[in-house]
Specification:
By secondary structure, this protein is α+β, with helices and mostly antiparallel strands. The protein has a domain of about 110 residues. The protein has 4 helices and 8 strands. The strands form 2 sheets. The chain has a 5-stranded antiparallel beta sheet with strand order 3-7-6-5-4. It has a 3-stranded antiparallel beta sheet with strand order 1-2-8. The radius of gyration is 30 Å and the shape is flat. The model has no long low-confidence stretch (mean pLDDT about 90).
Amino acid sequence: MNKKIITGLIVVVVLVGIDYYILANKKTPVQTIATPDPTINWQTKTNALFGFSFKYPAPFFAVNQEPKILVGDCNYGVFPQSCPNINNIVIGNQVASGGDVNAIKSNLSYPSYWKNPAGEKSTINNVPYCLYQNEDAAMMHEYNSYYYATVVGKECLVVNLNTSTTNCDVYLPIDGGDTEQQKNYDNCITTNKDQPNILSQIVSTFRFTNK
């Protein structure tokens, strides 16, 4: 066979082999889909002095129960090995909201006032916190007060979140064909179910700009 033909065939085979190798090892670009930020339209609560902020959906909290950032004296030296005592900060907050100071102090003196008297330690965005929680119930509602405390310098910074859930049995029994009652019941169930997730999202937005 003519040497030129043989050489040409070899070149063709080599080129085909190179093309096959390139195609076989070509990586398909990975398409990344951006996850929507559920907090993008939330309001922001800020304490400029300590460079702290967090976000929350305004409709989530009842009227006059908006989240608060509290700052006050505490036994900061025990933190983070132990949780600081924030009772005086809580008393000051409740008195400022119109509560009777003697009644508030009496309530806080009960060992069962706090669901977790020693505080529950956690780390949020690399910052240590202690969670104190108080529960109460009345008129087919359950009320929860959450206090996330951390220490900044020689003071405690406390985020106070107050929520309520409705006992959905208040909408029962549902008469046949009563679509409005059924809607209210379904909304109640959904709201109660979604509340822990929303609370978790709020807590995940805790930020110190200087840390």
